[in-house]
């Protein structure tokens, strides 16, 4: 209770159109009579301690609204470093002294681990926890698991776009 506001509520809703800060919990689920507890793969990107999820979990409906969500969240949280097309040439790449990963080229050496392309679970984990070098901070406190999976979908789409464009350019030569 807070008498400062006319509705006497202390907690305030976020300003419309702003990026979420804090836990990004789905409050409707938190206060539901029967909350949904998603499985470990959905929440962490891992099947177990040593195995990554290979593709986006089946709990997520892969459709255009999810793609739009991924595009929106990527533009807000990722593009400043990784660039609009995921090529690692965002605005911050000029200032931070560390070149961000080229997310749109899956054959890029900084996108491989032991010569194997990252799984969707590894991308999800990197978005959630940040990079091991500390150059990228994790976004798990700002984005819900669904939003992070949406970004994974969007990154995979960027890769597909770059692969097709590269193939089309090589066929024209």
List descriptors:
single chain; mainly alpha; two-stranded antiparallel sheet; two-stranded antiparallel ribbon; 38% helix; globular
Structure described in brief:
By secondary structure, this protein is mainly alpha-helical. Helices cover 38% and strands 5% of the residues.
Query: Which regions contain 5 or more consecutive residues with pLDDT less than 50?
Result: none
Radius of gyration: 19 Å
Assess the beta-strand content as a share of residues.
Answer: 5-15%
Largest sheet: 2 strands, antiparallel
N-to-C series of helices and strands: HHEEHHEEHH
Number of strands: 4
Please estimate the helix content.
Answer: 25-40%
Find the structural class using helix and strand composition: mainly alpha
Number of helices, where a helix is a run of at least 4 consecutive DSSP H or I residues: 6
Side by side, the strands of the main sheet go 1-2
Mean pLDDT: 81
End-to-end separation: 70 Å
Gross morphology:
globular
Q: Could you describe the 3D structure shown?
A:
This protein is mostly helical and 173 residues long. The protein has 6 helices and 4 strands; from the N terminus they run ααββααββαα. A two-stranded antiparallel ribbon has the order 1-2. Strands 3-4 form a two-stranded antiparallel ribbon. Helix 3 packs across helix 6 (145-172) and helix 5 (120-129) crosses helix 6 (145-172). The longest helix is centred in the C-terminal third of the chain and has 28 residues, at 145-172. The chain is globular, with a radius of gyration of 19 Å. The model has no long low-confidence stretch (mean pLDDT 81).
